[in-house]
Amino acid sequence: MRMGDRWSLLGIGAAILLAGSAAGARTQGAQPRAAAPPVASIPALVPQPAQMELASGDSFIISAATTLQVTSTNAEVARSARELTEWIRRATGLQVAAAAPGAASVPSGSRIEIALDAARQALGDEGYEIVIDATRLALTARTPAGIFYGVQTLRQMLPYWSEYEALLFQEPRPIALPALRIVDTPRFVWRGSMLDVARHFFAPADVKRLIDILALHKMNRLHLHLADDQGWRIEIRKWPALTAKGGRGEVGGTPGGFYTQAEYKDIVAYAAARYIIVVPEIDMPGHTNAALSSYASLNCNRQATQPFTGTDVGFSSFCVDKEMTYVFIGDIVREIAALTPGPYFHMGGDEVKTLTPDQYRKFVERVQTILQKRGKEMIGWDEIAPATLLPTTIVQHWRPDAPPASLAAARRLILSPANRTYLDMKYDADTMLGLQWAGLVPLKTAYDWDPAALVPGVRPESVLGVEAPLWSETLATIRDVEFMALPRLSAIAELGWSPRERHDWEQFRIRLGAQAPRWTALGINFYRDPQVAWK
Ligand code: TNX
Q1: Which residues lie below 8 Å from residue 83, measured CB to CB, with a gap of 6+?
Q2: Which H or E element spans position 238?
Q3: What pLDDT does 101 receive?
Q4: pLDDT score of 440
Q5: Which single residue of 142, 169, 308, 366 has CA 20 to 30 Å from 274?
Q6: What is the spatial distance between Cα 83 and Cα 152, in angstroms, rounded to a whole number?
Q7: Domains and CATH numbers, the chain
Q8: Over the range 15-26, which residues count as b (16 or more CB within 10 Å of their CB) and which as e?
Q9: Ligand 1 atom 7: the closest Cα is on which residue?
Q10: CA atoms within 13 A on the CB side of 192
Q11: Which of these, 386, 383, 399, lies nearest to 285 by C-alpha position?
Q12: Residue nearest to atom 8 of ligand 1 (CA)
């Protein structure tokens, strides 16, 4: 059974009494010092689960008698279980005790069970099930990723103050979770965001903040735009001037920076622990002034270009008829591939204005071969679509006016239409940050579309999912990034995760509004979009 109808009847986000006994005890209110039994509220989750069915029974109370049993020896599952107990501790002041192994039932207390079950095929690679009744909260998945996503759902069901790290409780504060059943699997495999660390550089700690926000939203790809005209941001041992010279500046002339290989690996590992694959992008053959200014030998005329701190695009290009260019690309790909366990490598390919179509196409196909030899699946912006592409190559749609026929021919597509998903577009005419070349992108515009049906002629099976880019011409700090990302990133997350029939703007703006206290507790600088019913 599906929850939809009852859901709208109850009104999302409203704190209502779900447990009869709790309601009764509460209204008596005779004993002044006795704590009132906790009251469960309907979970306001983002992204909305595929199926959620509230049950009519009593709530599940997390109290001093609650125990935890993990039925798996998997270390990743244990890590997710530890994270859950930490959020529970912060929510309640209670340290949930591990159940004695083999304990069949706990007569006096409630019990949390976390189990990996290989037989649950229908849950897929990322799905999970949560069943809650008065005595038992059971989280089951087929994979550790599914357990992680189930824990993110439970996290959103806990009170917002569980996000504060150092809460002190004078006495424990039991909480209630409603009896329910959630069966949840994602709609798309690709649920991503992109950070442009080239126009402005963002330190590893900033990137980790964005990763944390992605994880909260069950997103699983972080695309890093590591090189552009204004900066080269990843250490390449064979070509040290790329960072020594090409990493020095950024837009506006402020000091840039770069990731050492150790720092980059650390970011990749931090993301992987949250089931996020890092997708490295080295934009080429255009957007390459940082490289061309670092090495004279890369230029057709053997003269290094000047560093660039402006925001124009389209003026730079690799010297595509020079063999040296491909030696260089081979070295870059080898070093980055060795740091990147994920299967993808993004070669950019956008906005090349100085090559003939034939030069451009040949270049794309040659880079594709280099990547194939390194075992990487190529991704490119939608200009690459007319080239002869391998079945594994992925086209990332970004230009609202890209020819639909060439996109329809692509076998694998990521949807990042600029007029819907570009988080660097202004919300409205008054937004201080951001650009507006693709129009204004208010929250509803980011939310109200179907990735599988946007481009005429595209087969829904070829759509891997969605990605929301954060270009950083106007974004200098992670505070700026957060302001442009949230709440629109939540909209993209829901497009990526929730089935089409769960999308509902009116419900979304209420569920989203309920996230405000949590985001505030996390210190996120989000935009209080007037379209949202903020709590
Ligand atoms: C277009 S999206 C670009 C970027 C800019 C962005 C600004 C794409 C593939 N190219 O170079 O940063 O617009 O919104």
Answers
A1: 151, 155
A2: none
A3: 62
A4: 98
A5: 169
A6: 10
A7: 3-184 (3.30.379.10), 207-229+265-497 (3.20.20.80)
A8: eebbbeebeeee
A9: 471
A10: 24
A11: 383
A12: 350
